[in-house]
Amino acid sequence: MNKNNIRTFALWARRKLIYDIKNQLEILGIFKDSILKEYNHKIPKSYRDELAKEVMKRGFEEVVEEAAYVWFIRIIAFRYMEINHFITDTSKCFFDSEESFKISHIEFISEISMELNLNNDEKLNLKKNFSNDLENLYKTILILRCRKFANILPDIFYNKNRYMEILIPDKIFDEESILKRLITDIDERDFKRGVEIIGWLYQYYMSDKKDDVFNGLKENIKITKENIPAATQLFTPKWIVQYMVENSLVRVVKSHGINRINISELKEKCSYYLDDYKEESEILDDTKSIRHRTEVGNIENIKIIDPCMGSGHILVYAFDFLYEIYKKAGYEGKKIPRLILENNLYGLDIDYRAVQLGTFALFMKCREYNDDFFTEVEYEYVNINMCTIEESNDISKEEVNYFVNAYIESKNYSDEVKNEKFRKDIEYLVEIFKDAKEYGSILDVKNLNFVTLKESINTMKNKIIPSFQLSKHILFEKILKLINQGEILSGKYDAVITNPPYMGIRGLNDKLSSYLCENYPVSKYDMFSVYMEVCKKLAKENSFYAMITPHSWMFLSSFTALREKLIKEGNFINMIHLGARAFEENVGTIVQNVAFIFRNGNVSSYKTKIIDLTKEENSREKEKKLISIKKDKTSSNVYIGDLKILMETQTKSIAYWISDNVIKLFSELPPLSSITKPRQGIATSDNKRFLKNWFEVERDKIKFDALSKEDAMISEKKWFPYNKGGDYRKWYGNNEYVINWENDGKEVKEYASKLYKSYSRTIKNEDFFFRKCLTYTFISEDMGVRYCPNGFIFDVAGSSVFFEDNEKINVILGFLCSKVAKMFLDTMNPTYNIQVGDLKNIPIKEEMYTCIDIKEKIDNLVRENIEISKREWDSFEISWDFHSHPLAKRGMKLSEAFKIWEEKMKIDFNKIKRNEEMLNKIFIELYGLQDELSESMNDEDITFRKADVKREVKSLISYIIGCIFGRYDVEGVNSYRIKSGEVEEQGTKSKWFAKNNIIPITEDEYFEDDIVYIFVEFIKEFYGEENLEENLEFIASSLKKKEGETSRQVIRRYFIKEFYKDHVKTYEKKPIYWMFDSGKNDGFKALIYMHRYEPDMISKIRENYLKLLIKKYEEEAERLSLMINSEVINKKHRSFAKKKTYRIYNQIEELKKYNNIAAYVDGKKIIINLDDGIRHNYEKFQGINMVDSKGQEVKMNLLCKI
C-alpha cells in the first residue's frame, strides 16, 4: 500500500473540497459574514433556505467542513465498492473521461433506471440530459445512488440535511476533480488489499486539523470536546492489531470450550499468538477457579468491544477471526456475517465520522463473505452494536416528563412502581450523558434493566409514537440512542481490545481534567492510562483485555499506584515492548509504546512473558523481530518474570531487564540528591510574550552574566539568559533564549498571579536563579547534560542540578553524561520525559569525588569536553558568543580554509569521543558493571557536528550577508556591535557594505548594489582578487552547480530560490533578515536587516528600486520585441526572446501590484518594537487587505511568507 500517495490525496482532497464548497456557497449568495436575500441559481428554494438557516445556526466553516467530509467519504466508499465488485457495472461511478461515462450510461440506461427504481418521468429526464448536460446527468445519478445506498448504509449515504445534495462536488470531469484524481492518484490494488485503506484515508484527511490542535496546545490552547477526535486519530498497524486480537480471542475461545474448535490448531494459524510461560492447563491445575467458563459453549455468546473504535480497524480483524471460528464450529457461511455483527462485536467512539467508517468497514467485510448481504440488509436491517456517544444536553426536564407520560399512556394498566422505575431510569440516562462528548466511553454507567427499557420503548413505538409530532419523534430517537449506548457502556465483555487516545491531563480542558481527578485518581494523568482502568471495568471477571499504549505507565513515578493496582488485581499475560517508531506513520520518537494482554483476575506467582522490540528501527522491523522470536525460543529479547517482584524494588517500575547487581546498587548506595539539588524550572504561562530568542531583541538590553538576583536588578537590563532544554546535546550549548526578567520578573509574576492567584504555582526555585549549574532537556531522546555558567534562569523543560559545593560539578557532569547514569535512568524511566524525581534517585558512588586520583581524571576529561563543545557551539552564528565564521580566513583560498576546519573538527570529534569512552570506563569499573556495559561509543552518540562542506558554505554566505549589513565586524574582533556611527565609517570603506540597509535580489544585475555583485566584491576584497574565481567556483560547486551554469549564476540562483528558506530554518522561523518579495514570478526581492529597520525603509525600496525596476523591465521587453520581429535573428533566439518577454510582462504586472501594496504600507510608516519579537513585528507587513483589479478584497503580503 502506497501510504505516501494515499496521504497526499487525502490532504489535497480535503483542501480541494473545502475550497469548492465555499465557492458553491458563494454562488448561492451565502458568505462567511453575510447571506444575500436574492440569488441567481437553479436549485429548489427550500434547499437553499435550509442551507442558509444551517449556516446561521452552526456557522459557515462548520457547514463547509461537514459537507466536504460527507462527499469525501461517499466518493471513496463508492470507489472501494466498485473496485472490489461489490456493486454492479451499472452502478459504476468512476470514468476515465466524459466520453466513457456517456458510452457506459447509454449502454446501461435501462438497467440504471431499474436499479434506481425510477418512474417514467425520471427515466425521460435522464435520457434528455444525455444531449444537454453530462455533468448534471452524472450528479443526478450519483445522488440517486446515494439515496439507494441509504437503505443499506444510512450512516454514510442518508441525507439528514437535504441541502447536502446541492453541495455535491462540481466539475466532475475536470482533470483536477476529486473523482478523477482518486482514479489517477491511488492504485486500484491498494483498494483491493482490504478495507483498512478507508481508515488510512480518514486519518490523513484529518491530519491538517490534528496539526492545528497540537499547534494550539503549544500556545496553551486546551483540547475541547470538538477537537478530541482530531487530536487522537492514530491508525494502529495491522500486525499489532493482530497481536492483540489473537492473544485475547484465542484465550477467550478456549475459556468458552466451544465444540469442534481445536485450540492447538487455532494457535498454529495465528501469526502473533504467544504461549503463556506455563501452559494454561498447568495454571488451571493450581487454581481451578481462575477461569471463567461458559456453560453453553456457544460462540454467539462471546462479546468483544472496542471502546475507542475509531474507524473500526480492530473490530474488522476480530470479524475475520470470528468468521473462521464460526466456520470451524459448523455454521453456514452466508449466515455468519449477520451473526457476528448482531451478537459478537461492539464499538463506541465520540467521533460520529469514525463510527460511520467503522460500520462501513464491517459491512464491507460482510459483503466480502456474503454476495447477497446488501440485498438482505435492504429487506431486514442488521441490528449493529456500534454507537457514537451522544449527549443529552438538549433534552429538557419537560421533555423527559412528556416522554414518561407517553410511556404511561401506552400501557393498558397502571403500575406505579414500574412507572416510577421507568422515570428514574430515563432521568438517570439523561443526567449521566450530559456533556458525554467530553468523556466518551470513560463514563461509568450502572447496569439498568435495559431489556425491560427496550420492551417499553417498543410498546410506545407501536401505540403512541406514530401520532407524535416531528419534534417528539426526534425526542424518541434521542432517548433510544441513550438507552443503546447505556446498555453497551454498562455491559461486561469477554474481550476488550483498543488503542485509546493519548492525551495528557495538562492539555485537557477543565471539565474533563476535573472529571478524571474525581473518578480516576490513580490513572488521571493521561487518557490512555484512564482507559487501562476503563477496560478493566468493561471486562468480565477472569476475561481479557488487550491494549496498545505509551509505555510511560511502566516507569513513571506518577503511575506507581496504577501499576500496583493492576498487578495486584490481575495478570499481564504477555507484553511486547515496542519502544519508539511502532506506528507506520511518523509520530516522532517521543511516543514510545507497549502492547499487552491482561487477564482481569489474579493468579499468584504468575510469570509474565515480555518481548523487547525497542531496538528495532521501525514498525516493519519490529514485526519481523517478533515473528523470528516466536520461532527462536531461546531469544535474548524474551524476559519472563513475576512483576510483583519488580514492584518490591526501590524504583517500583517494570524494568524487566534489570539485573540483581543493579537492584543491589539501588538499595545500597546513596542517591544523587544527597549531594545535589535537582530542581525543576519555571513556567512563564505565556512563552510567546515573555521568551525570545536572544537575536530578536537589542543585545544591549541583555545581561548575559548576572551573578545573583541583586546583580540582575542593579544592571537594569530587561532580558536574561534562559535555559529551555532544546535538542539532545552534551557538555555545553543550547543557549538560545532570553526571558523578560526586568525588575525581578515583575511582568511575569503579575501575569502568573492574575492566572493562578499566586505566582509561586508556576515560578519556583528563585533562590537558584543565576547560579552555576548543570542543565538538561526535560523531554529528550537521551540524557544530554550540559554545563551552565552563571547568569541563567531555567525553564520546566530545561531543568537543572545545583550544588552546595561547585567542586563536584564537573565530576557529576561526567557521570551524568556516562553510560552508567543512562542505565540507571533507563531502569527508573526509559521514557523521553526525564523526571527530577528519577534524577534524584540515581545511586552515587562517593569515590568518584572523594578519591583524589579519580576526581582529577574526571575533572580533566570533563573540562576538556566542555571547552571543545563550547568551541564547536560558538562556531555557528546561532551562538551569542559567535565572533567569526571558521572559513573567514583573510587572503586564503576557501578550499584550503575548509580543509583546515575539517581537520580541526575531526581532531576535536575524536578527542571528545575518546574522552567519553574513558569516562565510561572509569564509572563502569567504579560501579562494577563490566559484565553489563561497554565503554565504547558510537559516532552518532557524540553530540558534536563534523565539518560538512555544503552546510559550511551556506553558513559562510549567511555570515557574509551579516557583514554586508553591519551585523558582524569583518575582522571578527567585535562581533555584534555596529551602531550608526560605525555604519557610516564602514560604508565609506567598502563597496560591498549595505549603507541603506537594503540588498536587492533580481534575476539580472539591474542595480549597482545587486546582491551577487556586492557578494563577489566582498569575496574579492576579503580573500584576495587572485583567489576570486577559484573561491567562487568552490562556493558554486558546494551549492550543486548545474551543467552549463557559471559560478555567479549558481550564486544568484541560490539567493533567489534557497537562501531565505535556509535562513528561516536556521533561525527557527524568526528571521533577522527580512525578504521583501513581489511574488511567484520573482519580479523583485530584497533583504533588509530588521535591527536596522526604519519607518521610511519601504519608501526607499519603492523610490530606489521598484519604480526603476519596472522601467528597466519595460525597456527590456521593448528590446526583446525588436528581436522577435527581426528577420536577422534566428528561430532559436526568437523563441527564447518570446519566452523571456512573456516572463517579463508577468513580472511587470506583479511589480505594479506589489508597488501598490508597498505604497499603501509605506503610508502607515510602521514602527517596530524589537521587544515584541520577530514574529509579531513581521506580521505587521503581512495579510494586508487590498482591493484587486476585479474590485474584490484580497490579502497580500509585503514580505516573503514564512
Your description of this structure?
This protein is α/β, with parallel strands linked by helices. It folds into five domains: 3-193, no CATH class; 230-388 and 494-646, Rossmann fold (3-Layer(aba) Sandwich); 397-432 and 448-490, no CATH class; 672-866, Adenine-n6-DNA-methyltransferase TaqI, Chain A, domain 2; 949-1196, no CATH class. The chain contains 49 helices and 22 strands. The strands form five sheets. It has a nine-stranded mixed sheet, sandwiched between helices. Strands 10-17-14-15 form a four-stranded antiparallel sheet. Strands 11-13-12-16 form a four-stranded mixed sheet. It is globular and about 105 Å long. The chain starts with a helix and ends in a 6-residue tail after the last strand. The model is unreliable at 284-296 (pLDDT under 50).
Topology:
Layout: H1 3-27, H2 45-58, H3 60-83, H4 98-107, H5 109-115, H6 120-132, H7 134-149, H8 154-157, H9 178-185, H10 188-192, H11 196-205, H12 207-218, H13 228-232, H14 238-256, H15 263-269, H16 280-286, E1 304-306, H17 313-328, H18 336-344, E2 345-349, H19 352-369, H20 373-379, E3 386-388, H21 397-410, H22 416-432, H23 436-439, H24 450-463, H25 470-490, E4 493-498, H26 510-519, H27 527-538, E5 539-550, H28 560-569, E6 571-580, E7 592-599, E8 608-612, H29 619-631, E9 638-641, H30 643-646, H31 660-668, E10 676-679, H32 687-690, E11 691-693, H33 709-715, E12 719-723, E13 737-740, H34 742-756, E14 773-776, E15 785-788, E16 793-794, E17 800-803, H35 809-816, H36 819-828, H37 836-840, H38 847-850, H39 852-874, H40 894-927, H41 949-965, H42 980-989, E18 999-1001, H43 1011-1023, H44 1028-1038, H45 1047-1057, H46 1059-1066, E19 1073-1077, E20 1085-1089, H47 1097-1125, H48 1131-1162, H49 1174-1178, E21 1184-1187, E22 1193-1196
Parallel strand pairs: 1-2, 1-4, 2-3, 4-5, 6-8, 12-16
Antiparallel strand pairs: 5-7, 6-7, 8-9, 10-17, 11-13, 12-13, 14-15, 14-17, 18-20, 19-20, 21-22
Helix pairs in contact: 1-3, 1-9, 1-11, 2-3, 6-7, 11-19, 14-17, 17-18, 17-19, 18-19, 21-22, 24-25, 35-39, 39-40, 44-45, 47-48
